[in-house]
């Protein structure tokens, strides 16, 4: 190999054996794909087909029917009869967090991925993510998505740049409030990453609530350039429905993240977390609080934000201070000026 130094040859050989080892491990790796489904009969067949038609076939597909009142239970059972890789769990309705926890408890794979029952994935989705995960020796691999409408028509793409992060750097990326680092459906992870992850039942924004826990459990996270996931915008879904009190769960998720950072001594991460919470507080001015329980929840959310503000040691913006002192007035003004 004339023209190459011994160091270059050694590096090339090391890269070659790393790829060979990754390919060997890839053949044996079992991926548990957890599909949560609640009243998505219109889209579930397409979702399941997209998973079963993956170019990587060593899959365990766990369909969690979260107490659906439409044809979802029958659709799940039909597919289980057709493909031995499918497990079906029928449970009482408990929300997305409960369904994900149920799916994780049943998962036996080396790696875990999630697909929402009204979404779908391209054929090479899991092969691409698994190959990247093994070749880079990462614990989590994330990628981008295409947003599609209810009929599957293209709306927009989110394509991240390829990058690699250690655990703390990944936590810093959470401070950008970028969905690439939050949505579990855009990722494939080693099972160990979920060792102490319990999605908060009775709450929405469950991925945001647990993202920092997963990143603390990971040594390396890789973001892969691409848009292989198809995220469907459905008008009656929880995440795209009209403003309701449940939307404020994101502030509680950020509060819990903030408290965990305090315990770990990650003081540099507190300001970004507080700022994200401030940016979510505008919802207070748009939600119709009618019951006593809803007003109590509103006051609880305000207390959580004020705790974050008071315990953020770094410089805080005037907006953060206004939101702390006059949360209702601040958020009313923000909504007015948005118009």
UniProtKB/TrEMBL annotation:
Alphabetized, the UniProt keywords read: Glycosyltransferase, Transferase
The entry lists its GO molecular-function terms as:
glycosyltransferase activity
Q: Which residues cross the membrane?
A: none
Any Pfam family: Glycos_transf_2
Stored InterPro entries: Glyco_trans_2-like, Nucleotide-diphossugar_trans
Which segments constitute the Glycosyltransferase 2-like domain? Answer: 32-160
Which protein, by its recorded name, is this? Glycosyltransferase
> Organism source for this protein?
Waltera intestinalis
């Amino acid at each position: 190999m004339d023209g190459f130094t011994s160091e270059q040859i050694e590096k090339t050989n090391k890269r070659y054996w790393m790829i060979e080892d990754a390919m060997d491990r890839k053949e044996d790796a079992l991926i548990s794909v957890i599909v949560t489904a609640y009243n998505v009969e219109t889209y579930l067949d397409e979702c399941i087909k997209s998973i079963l038609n993956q170019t990587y076939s060593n899959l365990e597909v766990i369909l969690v029917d979260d107490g659906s009142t439409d044809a979802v239970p029958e659709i799940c059972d039909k597919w289980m009869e057709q493909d031995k890789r499918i497990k079906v769990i029928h449970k009482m309705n408990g929300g997305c967090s409960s369904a994900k926890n149920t799916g994780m408890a049943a998962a036996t794979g080396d790696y875990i991925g999630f697909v929402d029952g009204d979404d779908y994935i391209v054929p090479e989705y899991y092969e691409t993510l698994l190959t990247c995960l093994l070749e880079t020796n990462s614990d989590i691999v994330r990628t981008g998505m295409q947003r599609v409408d209810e009929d599957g028509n293209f709306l927009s793409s989110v394509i991240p740049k390829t990058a690699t992060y250690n655990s703390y750097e990944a936590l810093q990326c959470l401070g950008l409030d970028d969905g690439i680092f939050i949505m579990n459906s855009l990722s494939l992870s080693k099972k160990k990453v979920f060792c102490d992850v319990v999605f908060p039942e009775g709450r929405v924004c469950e991925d945001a609530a647990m993202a920092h826990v997963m990143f603390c459990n990971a040594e390396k996270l890789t973001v892969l350039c691409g848009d292989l996931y198809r995220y469907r915008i459905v008008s009656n879904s929880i995440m795209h429905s009209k403003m309701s009190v449940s939307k404020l769960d994101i502030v509680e998720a950020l509060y819990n993240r903030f408290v965990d950072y305090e315990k770990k001594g990650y003081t540099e991460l507190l300001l970004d977390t507080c700022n994200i919470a401030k940016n979510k507080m505008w919802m207070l001015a748009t939600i119709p609080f009618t019951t006593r329980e809803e007003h109590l929840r509103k006051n609880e959310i305000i207390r959580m934000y004020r705790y974050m503000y008071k315990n953020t040691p770094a410089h805080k913006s005037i907006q953060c201070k206004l939101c702390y002192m006059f949360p209702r007035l601040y958020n009313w003004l923000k909504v007015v000026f948005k118009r």
